[in-house]
Amino acid sequence: MPLKLNVEITSPMTPDDHELLSGVSVMLLAIANHELAAARFPEAFGDNEPEEPVAPCGLEDDAGSTCVSKRGHVGRHKFRPVSSEAPTTLVN
Ligand SMILES: [Zn+2]
Known about the structure:
It is a single chain. By secondary structure, the chain is mainly alpha-helical. It folds into two domains: about 1-50, no CATH class; about 50-90, no CATH class. Helix content is about 30%, strand content about 5%. It is built from one helix and two strands; from the N terminus they run αββ. The chain has one helix at about 15-40; strands at about 65, 80. The chain has a two-stranded antiparallel ribbon with strand order 1-2. The longest helix has 26 residues, at about 15-40. The chain is rod-shaped. The two termini are about 35 Å apart. About 0% of the residues are buried. The model has no long low-confidence stretch (mean pLDDT about 85). Zinc ion (ZN) binds near residues 57, 59 and 69.
């Protein structure tokens, strides 16, 4: 989120100015902490693209079972019988 702050302070300051400056200071500290935390831990701030659903390998064996591993998986296929009643769960 882009943010632009313009703060102008003139002296002598009134009691209201002191209170306003104190509030702005707290706000700046909160923004700085948020920006620092977002830079260090981007995964915690929802800046990542949502994960797309993983497509299954889908290879069928001679018995009509389908591989339930993720598409592009490494290693052996994990064949499971195709069921129309329960959704297939992907395995690694
Ligand atoms: Zn497979």
